[in-house]
Amino acid sequence: MTAVLIVVSAADRWTLNDGTSHPTGYWAEELAEPHRIFAAAGWDITIATPGGVAPTVDRLSLGFAGGLPAKTRAVADYLRKHESTLAHPKVLADIDPGDYDVVFYPGGHGPMEDLAEDTDSGRILTTVLDSGRPLALLCHAPAATLAARREDGTWPFEGYRMTALSNTEERLNRFSRKAKWLLQDRLVESGAIYQKGRLPLRPFLVVDRNLYTGQNPASSTMLAHKLVTDHGSAALHVSVSRLIDADPLTVYDALSDVTTIGQRSPETHAAKWITSGKKFKGHNHIGPLYRWSTVCNVTEDAPGRSFAFEVAWPSNTSWRYDLTAVEDATEVTLMMTKKQPQAAPVVAIQRMVGVHDRAEHLRTGMSQTLTRLAQQVERATPHHAGTTRRSQ
Q1: pLDDT tens, position by position, 123-137
Q2: Half-sphere exposure for 305 (CA within 13 Å, toward CB)
Q3: Smallest Cα–Cα separation from 26: which of 106, 114, 117, 144?
Q4: 72 neighbors 63 (Cβ within 8 angstroms)
Q5: What is the pLDDT of residue 100?
Q6: Residue 389 pLDDT > 70, yes or no?
Q7: Tens digits of per-residue pLDDT, 36-49?
Q8: At what angle do helices 358-379 and 248-255 cross, to 10 degrees?
Q9: How far apart are CA 96 and CA 127, in angstroms?
């Protein structure tokens, strides 16, 4: 079982440059969403804070600033279900980072107050970074890296590509003009190679070696899914890639239209939206006799970058497309992850219809899907007609 350590700020206020303080804590979505995704993946979760103090949720994150009411209610409900765990975190000073496979830091302004100066946190960050195990920081959480130092006094994160809440996004807060410092500026001054998305408040990730960073609260789900996909102990994981001669937005527009999935997938012959953009029903088959339907919930929808969904029973799988611009083309990676072993009756049915190696069967079908996606996109893009390239 994958063991993940979640390090949360214990601060409940942020001291500003005029000596006043702004009530803060951790940002609700940034803790709740990754926790939910890690738990669904079957990971063993430990929460730790400086001094073992119960963390405080930033009340702004459960209001208008946290999103639409339905979203903030769901986040608040999830946190209430885990109140007992949050009320009794581990003491950060007692943590041995070697006990964990993954270390994750959520943000909020809290880390700007305490973790940016916490030597125990700095020790953990340095150890995990040097170990090669995945280290993930979200939104304001990269402030914690400022407390990390090697024995010779150098900053371990110098030269790493990373993201964090941008100056533009920070200045959307009316109290930011009173901030002692802005995170983007401090990271650049310390030697980080800072990167940000083209648009503020949209999901954006940077992965450099074993360091995973997300720019803002909207990146919470994407970052957690990326960690689970890259480092979870899945019962079945299949990934295929292909280069398509079109820009990422054009490719995204085609693959995110689930109503045309039957044109691409050899297994899913049709799909229709139940709730547009959020939930759809897929109709699947292997051969003429084995047919089944699934309900799918969209979990990530970042135009030009990614599209992901989870499939409910009987599949219980997650599917993800990642898009990367490569010169004048797009590299598309399609991944399927199944956390639990397939039920014996389903395995028996698959064997009856000739599927003895499900992983290889999926790999073949997913490769066909990307080939047909390329053909679909290139047919719709006249200046690419007759030009097809495949990634190796």
Answers
A1: 999 999 999 999 999
A2: 15
A3: 106
A4: yes
A5: 97
A6: no
A7: 888 877 799 999 99
A8: 120
A9: 10
Taking CB atoms within 8 Å and a gap of at least 24, the contacts of 13-20 are 13/113, 14/109, 14/110, 14/112, 14/113, 15/113, 15/180, 16/175, 16/178, 16/179, 16/180, 17/178, 17/179, 17/180, 18/178, 20/178
Distance CA 282, CA 293 (A): 6
Instruction: Sketch out the chain's domains with CATH numbers.
Output: 3-231 (3.40.50.880), 236-384 (3.30.530.20)
Tell me how far apart the alpha carbons of residues 26 and 79 are, in angstroms, rounded to a whole number.
12
Count the neighbouring beta carbons within 10 Å of the beta carbon of residue 355.
16
Residue-wise pLDDT tens digits, 54-67: 999 999 999 999 99
Residues 6+ apart with CB under 8 A from 130: 156
Supply the pLDDT for residue 385: 44
Torsion region of 93: left, alpha or beta (phi above 0 gives left; psi -120 to 50 gives alpha): alpha
Place of tokens 């499900």: 358
Using the predicted structure, report yes or no on whether residue 34 has a pLDDT greater than 70. Answer: yes
Strand partners, 234: none
CB of 248 closer than 8 Å to CB of 305: yes
Strand locations in 29-134 (E):
44-49, 90-91, 102-105
Provide the pLDDT for residue 342.
72
Return the pLDDT at 230.
84
- Structure tokens that stand for 8 in this block: 């949360």
